[in-house]
Write a structure and sequence with these properties.
The structure is a single chain. By secondary structure, this protein is mostly helical. It has a domain of 35 residues. 70% of the residues lie in helices and 0% in strands. It is flat.
Length: 115
C-alpha cells in the first residue's frame, strides 16, 4: 500500500471518529434535556388523583355484576359458521356448439393411432 493511500484512509477514519464523538455528545445532551420534567409535581399529582378515581369507578362497576352473569353471557353466545356459496367460473371459448362438433369430427378422421 502506498503512503498516500494509507494517509487518506487514516484521514477518513479520523474524520469519522470526530463526527461520531460529536454525534454522541449531542445525543447525550438531548437525553439530558428530555429527562428534565416539563410538567410540575402538582400536575402529576392531579393526574394521579384522576386515574385513581377512574380506577375506583371501574372496580365498582365490575363488583356490581356477579361473575356468574358474565359466564352465562359467554355461554349463551353461539357462533354459527355458514359456508359461502361456491364460486362457479364458466369459460366460453370462441365459436358455436356445432362448430366444435365439426372440429371433433375432423380430429377423428385424421387420427393416426387407431386401435
Amino acid at each position: 500500500m502506498k503512503r498516500r493511500h494509507a494517509f487518506l484512509i487514516s484521514l477518513i477514519i479520523g474524520a469519522a471518529a470526530i463526527f461520531g464523538t460529536f454525534a454522541a455528545t449531542h445525543s447525550v445532551r438531548l437525553g439530558r434535556a428530555s429527562a428534565q420534567p416539563g410538567i410540575s409535581g402538582a400536575q402529576i399529582a392531579a393526574h394521579n388523583r384522576a386515574l385513581d378515581r377512574t380506577e375506583a369507578r371501574l372496580r365498582r362497576m365490575l363488583s356490581g355484576q356477579p361473575a356468574a352473569e358474565h359466564a352465562a353471557a359467554a355461554r349463551r353466545q353461539r357462533v354459527i359458521y355458514v359456508r359461502p356459496a361456491p364460486h362457479v367460473v364458466t369459460l366460453h371459448h370462441g365459436g358455436h356448439e356445432d362448430e366444435s362438433g365439426e372440429r371433433e369430427a375432423e380430429g377423428r378422421e385424421g387420427d393416426e393411432f387407431d386401435d
